[in-house]
Amino acid sequence: MTLIELVEENIIKIPLESNDKPDVLRELVQILKDAGEIEDFDATLKAVQQREDKQSTALEDGIVVPHGKTDAVTDLRLAIGIAPQGIDFDSMDGKPSTLFFLLVAPPDMSGPHVAALAEIAKLAQSKALCKALTRADNAREVVELLTGD
Fold it and tell me: Is the pTM of this model over 0.90?
């Protein structure tokens, strides 16, 4: 399963309503809950928060990849949030973060989890794509940008 195969309109939110890290994490997990991708909101949020507490998952150039492993999911799950205004997420370059890719996987699914993280890192190298995603007006536009559909 590739990252692109996980991209659907119902797991994308533009704009994120949150203004800080804890609220962003809750909002991203809520996207998965609302989309029917997870049943246990609290267990999923706990896994993501525990990982975030170890070290910020904010990279450079506005990209954040919060992730975690939990028995609350049976397969890799993705939620995408876009915050054009930028949110302080303790990024490596100290700049506000705008693109959020939440990944959640079961504990025994390291391969697809790591592959998805690598795909996001590769995607982040395209400054033009990242700018286009940040400027997207709706979830359909994000799907089109990421999948070419």
Answer: yes
Residues 143, 9 contacting (CB under 8 angstroms)? yes
Q: For residue 51, report the phi and psi dihedrals to the nearest 5 degrees.
A: -65, -45
Q: First-to-last CA distance in the chain?
A: 17
- Which helix (DSSP H) or strand (DSSP E) does residue 85 occupy? strand 77-87
Look-up of token digits 């592959």: 115
Distance (Å) of CA 14 to CA 9, 45, 94:
10, 20, 23
- The CATH H-level superfamily of 3-147 is Mannitol-specific EII; Chain A (3.40.930.10)
Distance, CA of 12 to CA of 83 (rounded, Å): 11
* Helix/strand/coil for 10: helix
Chain centre distance of CA 7: 11
Q: Where are the alpha helices (DSSP H) in the chain?
A: 3-6, 21-34, 41-54, 110-124, 127-135, 139-147
Residue spans of the domains in the chain: they are 3-147
Nearest-angstrom CA–CA distance, 49 and 67: 8
> Tens digit of pLDDT for each residue in 31-72?
999 999 998 999 999 999 999 999 999 988 899 999 999 999
